[in-house]
Every structure is written in C-alpha cells, then in structure tokens.
Amino acid sequence: MAELLKAGLIGCGDYLRWEIDDLNSNTYLKVKYTFDLDHGKSRRIAGKINANPVDAVGEIFDDPEVKVVMIFTPPWVRKDLFRKAVESGKHIITTKPFGSNLEDAEELYGMVKDRVNCAVYYGRTGNAHVEMIKKILDSGEIGHLALYKEDWLHHYPVWNDWATDPEKNGGPFMDAMIHNLNKARYLIGSQVKNIHYFSDNFAQSLKCRDTEFMKLDFENGAAAYLFITWAADLEVFDPTGNDRVHYGIQQLITSEGWYITEEEQDGIPVIRAVKERKVKTWEVGPLSHTKYDQFSINLQEGKPQAADASDAITDMQIMDAAVKSLSY
Ligand SMILES: NC(=O)c1ccc[n+]([C@@H]2O[C@H](COP(=O)([O-])OP(=O)(O)OC[C@H]3O[C@@H](n4cnc5c(N)ncnc54)[C@H](O)[C@@H]3O)[C@@H](O)[C@H]2O)c1
Fold first, then answer.
1. Are 260 and 273 contacting, i.e. CB atoms less than 8 angstroms apart?
2. Which of 174, 216, 288, 308 stands the most exposed, by the fewest C-beta atoms within 10 Å?
3. Which fold has domain 128-288+318-324?
4. From ligand 1's centre to the CA of 299, what distance in Å?
5. Whose CA is nearest to atom 40 of ligand 1?
6. Position in ligand 1 atom list of the atom nearest CA 159
7. 77 CA to middle of ligand 1, Å?
8. Phi/psi of residue 133, each to 5°?
C-alpha cells in the first residue's frame, strides 16, 4: 500500500497555473515546501497549496522527510538543482523541454540514471483523453495511427525573456510543439526513421525564428506533421503568463481510414471515430490517479515511471538531429 510522500517544489512560475488543482487533490504526494528565487511567487504558490515557503533551497534538500523534488525552473537552470537532488537522494519531477539542448539534457540524464527516479512531464502526461486514444489504438479495433497532424498558432511567450532565446530554450518547436512530438511518438508507438525540419521567420524580430515544422516518418509507415507558428500577433489576455488565444488543430487518421476526434456528447467527454457512415464512440473516464500520485505509487512499488526521463531524451535527440539538418 502506497504512503503519502513529501515533496519540495522549486520554481513557482507560470507553469503552476495548470498544476494547482492536481497538487491539491493528490493523495500520495504532498508539497511540504516551496522555493523560488522570487520569494513573493514562492509565498503565493505556497498559500494555494498549503505548503511552507522557505528562504533557502537547502532547507528542502536537507529535510530527510522530503523524498521528491519538483524542479519547475526553466530548462537552462536545472543542473545545480539536479546535482543537489541526486546528492541528497531525492527523486525528481521536471517539465519539458528536459534541457536547453541535447548536450544539457544528456548531462541531466547522466546525473539521475540508475540513481533516482526522474520524470519529465508533457501536456499529455496524466491526460485521460490521450490515454483513451492510446487504449483504442492498441486494441487494434480501428487500426493503428497512420497520420498524426497538429497545428498550433499562438502569440510568442511574453511573460519571461528566456523562452524565445535559442541558447536557453530553442525556438517555438522546442518550447511548445515538443508536447506533440512526444504525444505523436506515444500514440504511434514506433521508432522514428526520418526527420524533415523547417525553420522560418515571417513576422517577428525575436532571437529565435517564429515558425517551425517537422515531418517525422516512423518505422511502421506512420507519419507525424507538426507545425507551430508565433508569426501572428494573436491576442494575449494577460502578459504575466500563458494566457493567450491558442488555436490547436489536431487530425488523427488510422491505417484503416478512421478519423478520430475528441468531443463532448451530452456533456460527457468522448473519443469519436468515423469511417464513412460508421461511427464509434468511447467515453473518457477520469484516470485513477493524478500524474503526481502515479509517480509516487510507481516509486514506492519499484515500477518504471510512465514519463521517465529516458523518453524525454529521445525527444531531445530528435530535436538535435532536426536542428542540425537545417542549412542557414
Ligand atoms: N507556463 C506554461 O504554460 C508551461 C506549460 C507547460 C510546461 N512549462 C514548462 O515549465 C517550466 C517553467 O516554465 P514557466 O512558464 O513556469 O516559467 P517562468 O519563467 O514563469 O517561471 C520560472 C520560475 O523559476 C524561477 N527560478 C529560476 N531559477 C531558479 C532557481 N535557481 N531556483 C529557484 N527558482 C528559480 C523563476 O524565478 C521563475 O519564477 C519550463 O520548462 C516550461 O517549458 C510551462
């Protein structure tokens, strides 16, 4: 039977806007301390999740009751925190992109490998819709996923100055479309064979380019077409965070010609597949645990982490090959 483990949360930035509800509903992982270089942010988040804000990060690493650290700092400020976590035997949960580039991510992975559990969370982690689509595809009932296409259009990040810096975070693909690179690989469930990558600038004057597109061919014949643009100045509702118009258009087509969508039917979320006049629907129920509880349970039961850092390394290798294929 899993117990309630205590965690330290390091980095209380905008990412937390999506995480508060999960953190408050956890049964097996509770945040005991928060820390941010900006103490005001740390205090604000601590107040929302009933944790104690600490003045120095060392207080988190020195407390033997803390078993897990959530390192939600940007990718370029993780190495020292990872080193301290591993030295003090704390397991790690962090977010995409794993590092600023492949070299960085490999250094982080080298620190944790075979020493502590390390999960890298993406948008699909703990997402009930994605898990239901995966289950349907794996059942073979409508074939395997042959074509994954996703378009994302939104304003470039304005709430910080690191996300548009290629040295710290890559460009729009590494910052955001990497969510769908990871999701496409998960749903297709095959090895990547070929990568075609394009990076262009149409309208912005950022350190990075504003538009990126990747086509991935998989060993099983499937393909993913992943496109993101920050070229359009779509509305930003709140410049202090990721609160902006976001157009996300997803197309999923199986090897048997079924077209899959995520819908609501009578207020119930469903996955729907259509093929000519045939229609199939599957209800999307809630997952049994939050992604944090699942991490805690897997840790205590000695099971592999679903969002293990080894999977994030594959994304970083693909990004590295893609960027190296560009000719400027
Ligand atoms: N904001 C989102 O919508 C979102 C969504 C998914 C994933 N993410 C990922 O979450 C991570 C953080 O992004 P964000 O949007 O929260 O960034 P942010 O800039 O809003 O926040 C980062 C926070 O880290 C703090 N920080 C920096 N160095 C630190 C250190 N050494 N010790 C303690 N705190 C430190 C900063 O003071 C800041 O509060 C990134 O990897 C990002 O890709 C963000």
1. yes
2. 288
3. Dihydrodipicolinate Reductase; domain 2 (3.30.360)
4. 25
5. 74
6. 20
7. 9
8. -60, -40
Ligand 1 proximity of 182 Cβ (cutoff 6 Å): no
15 pocket-lining for ligand 1 (C-beta < 6 Å): yes
Q: Is the previous residue joined to 97 through a cis bond, with omega within 30 degrees of 0?
A: yes
Does 328 score more than 70 pLDDT? no
- Between CA 164 and CA 231 the distance in angstroms is 13
Distance in angstroms (rounded) separating the CA atoms of residues 65 and 156? 40
3 state DSSP class of 84: helix
> What three-state secondary structure class fits 325?
coil
pLDDT tier for residue 234 given thresholds of 50, 70 and 90: very high
Write out the CATH class of domain 5-124+290-307: alpha beta
Which residue, among 159, 112, 80, 121, has the nearest Cα to 311 in the 3D structure?
121
Nearest CA to ligand 1 atom 4: 15
> 76: Cβ below 6 Å to ligand 1?
no
Q: Whose CA is nearest to atom 8 of ligand 1?
A: 15
Strand ranges inside the chain, DSSP E: 5-10, 29-35, 52-53, 66-71, 91-95, 118-121, 145-154, 192-200, 211-218, 223-229, 236-238, 243-244, 246-254, 259-265, 268-275, 278-283
Per residue in 154-187, pLDDT tens? 999 999 999 999 999 999 999 999 999 999 999 9
Spatial distance between the Cα atoms of 76 and 227, rounded to a whole number of angstroms: 24
Query: Closest Cα to atom 31, ligand 1: which residue?
Result: 77
Quote the pTM value.
0.97
Q: Residue 250 in contact with residue 124, Cβ under 8 Å? A: no
